[in-house]
Amino acid sequence: MAWMLRLVKTGAEGEGACTDVMEIDRPDDLGDIANLGLTLAEAKRLLAGVQQKIVAVQAKEHAVRRPDCPHCGGVCRVKDYRDHAVATLFGQVTVRLPRFRCAACGGIEAGVGWPPYCRSTPELDRLQAHLCAVMTYRTAADLLEQLFPVEAGKHHETLRRHTLKVGEALGDYVATRPETAASTIAVTLDSTFIRSCADGERHLEVRVGNVETQSGGRQVFGAVAKAGTDIRVLICRNLDAVGRTEGTALTAFTDGCSGLRRILADAGVIARPMLDWFHIAMRLQHLKQIASALPADDPPRAEAKAVIVEEAERLHWRIWNGKARDAQTSIDRIRAVVHHFQGEPEGQTSNAPSRKLWTALHALDGYLASQSAWLVDYAERHRAGLRVGTAITEGTANFLVNRRMNKSQQMRWSRRGADLLLQVRCAIYNGTLGSGFGQKFQPANDPYPTMATAA
Ligand SMILES: [Zn+2]
Q1: What average pLDDT values come out for the chain (455 residues) when binned by 10 residues?
Q2: Centroid of ligand 1 to alpha carbon of 110 (angstroms)
Q3: Pairing relation of β-strands 274-275 and 249-254?
Q4: Within 10 Å of residue 23's Cβ, how many Cβ atoms?
Q5: How many angstroms does the Cα of residue 55 sit away from the middle of ligand 1?
Q6: How many angstroms is it from 71 CA to the middle of ligand 1?
Q7: How far away, in angstroms, is 306 Cα from ligand 1 center?
Q8: 121 CA to middle of ligand 1, Å?
Q9: Ligand 1 centroid to residue 97 C-alpha, Å
């Protein structure tokens, strides 16, 4: 069976010229499921064919226009024609467009408002950037080539260059303030690390955060340290985007790093930052996992394990209830029975349960001691319907950075490349990239707030 795909121009004056795009030849025998409908290759050829025909007609129609001179308002005449090669999502097109000269003042007018050196459509740019922000440059290039008749940007290096350009342009983004002011906003600021590709530099520090309103408005932001993007500007911009006014009460959470507290203060968030419950919970979770994996192969060990499991729970309860000062009691009780697990067969390795427990306990002890001034009564806040930390359950750093930029140990980043890619990732989640799909957060306040979420 064969079909002819034909485009017919329609308009106010009725049907116009028609033009054949392509012939489609498919078997009529459906004995093989693979014969059903169009193949991907045909669909790509079809899209590319339709694109070529439509662009050709558009260019022809555009060429008969005579713009007014922007300088003197005089009549323009065609000066010459120029070919523009433009990459689109449906293939490369060449558009032949006239340039005009004003008969009165001699001024030259392009006749189009395209950006200088325009080589691709904004839609293609956005889609490329979007894909690259959620998967590796190589995978994104493969995916685009598989699904679309794209000809430009097949190479992952090209895609990378385009994406970073989109990220750069986002630096000038101006937040639109929502109509409703936010009465309270919680600001979270964390840091994480990614591997550096530069010599003599192992890691790059990445600062990430989010702003959240009581009614569910949320925006995320992030910047690689010393890469040119000012995180303080991002914090201010995001506060504006969720409706900060002079009367807004700000609450701040950090992962406990003193540098982050300074950044918050510099950005005008003067509320005393609390230690984000998320980070404490992660450490407690780690301790509990180790405790539950301890062997209980003889009565003394079984008894010691029971003590450790119980004290780990108690430790959790104490910190949650603002009694971190008593945490030392639990830690001491655990330390007192750890010796039961020493001398195991693998006792010399760092994988031994007792070694792991000892290390986790030591780390938690140090953390609590250094952070004691920033701990609050989390239970009391929670009961009052107040936040105890970020509402992004897996943590902002994991969500924004690790998922894309830390996935494999082989991924190494340049300071600038990582920073600009992060700008694109944030824009996707904030709905400011304009690619329309995959958006996670609404910047404006939800007029119908759902239940306030804490913990
Ligand atoms: Zn003129």
Answers
A1: 91 85 93 94 95 93 87 89 94 93 89 87 92 93 92 85 93 85 93 91 93 89 95 94 92 89 92 91 93 89 92 94 90 89 62 83 90 92 90 84 81 94 93 72 55 35
A2: 13
A3: parallel
A4: 9
A5: 29
A6: 5
A7: 89
A8: 30
A9: 20
421-440 burial string, b = 16+ CB within 10 Å, else e? bbbbbbbbbbbbbebeeeee
Nearest CA to 390 out of 202, 198, 187, 222 is that of 187
Determine contact, residues 212/387, Cβ cutoff 8 Å: yes
pLDDT (0 to 100) of residue 210: 93
Q: 109 C-alpha to center of ligand 1: Å?
A: 9
Output the CA 4–ligand 1 centroid distance in Å: 48
Give the separation between CA 257 and CA 267, rounded to whole angstroms.
16
DSSP assignment, residue 276? Answer: P
Q: How many Å from the N-terminal Cα to the C-terminal Cα in the chain?
A: 62
Burial classification of residue 253, based on how many CB atoms lie within 10 Å of its CB (0-12 exposed, 13-18 middle, 19 or more buried): buried
DSSP state of 104: T
Distance 61 CA to ligand 1 centre (A): 23
Phi/psi for 343 (5° steps) reads 75, 25
